[in-house]
Amino acid sequence: MSGAAGVVAFSLTLVATGAAEPAFGALTVGAGRAVLAAGLAAALLRRRGLPLRPPDGRAATIVIAATVVVGFPLLTSWALADVPVAHAAVVVGLAPAATAGFAVVLAGERPTPPYWAALGLGLAAMLAFAAVQGAGRPRTADLLVLAAVVLVGLGYAEGGVLARRFDGAAVICWALLAALPVTVPLAAAGLVMHPPRQVTAGAAVGLAYVSVVSMFLGFVVWYRGLALGGVARVGRLQLAQPVLTLAWAALLLGESLTPVGVGTAMIVIASVVLGRRAPARPEQTDGAPHRA
After folding, report:
1. Which pTM does this prediction carry?
2. Mean pLDDT of 37-65
């Protein structure tokens, strides 16, 4: 249930980002959400009597902060300034494959050729879609979203592993606080470069959503689910995320769903399903399984 709740929460992230970006600017939406969420994180840690810094696993916390707190929000916010939410959702459909890939690395497994073949199929479908939509070649926004997918896969896997030792809520709280030296200056720069303008109710709700739900509550339940059910197993729930995002984009933003976009999303999802079913062999190092 925790993993499913996280997927539903994240499925609205691109939609909320797309609604907030025109009014607040990509930099403010991308970094400001983490600053607002950090206030909630500090309050929760103090209420539970937990330290503001992790007693162990600080390197992993920095990785989580750099990937899901800073990297993914900024890259997707910049991308959504140039492409519709429905377009970005297709590319984000590769997130389950990225999460599974990093999960097997962290677990010391060696993916088999069918795994990489399925992953290559999804990547080829996504690149073909991006080329068609970009008049013959992928746009910069597509590359930004693809980089965001790689970062979020690493952040999900690293956070899921760390959440096995600590509560999932504490993991994201520590990452939000660790990112403040970066997110505060970026958010301030965003406000100076792009002062809020023509702030609609939808834009305000969008910023509130990505700050409270996408950047905080969603991760609380998501990391808890990854810790309880396993990163690879629970990560497959992400298969539903791009489809949900496409539906939200059409329902809430009025974006049109093109046959090419829907078809590509189905191919990406199918490739992830095939890749997830492909077996993985334990990697042997001096006769013992290796753990990265």
Report:
1. 0.81
2. 92
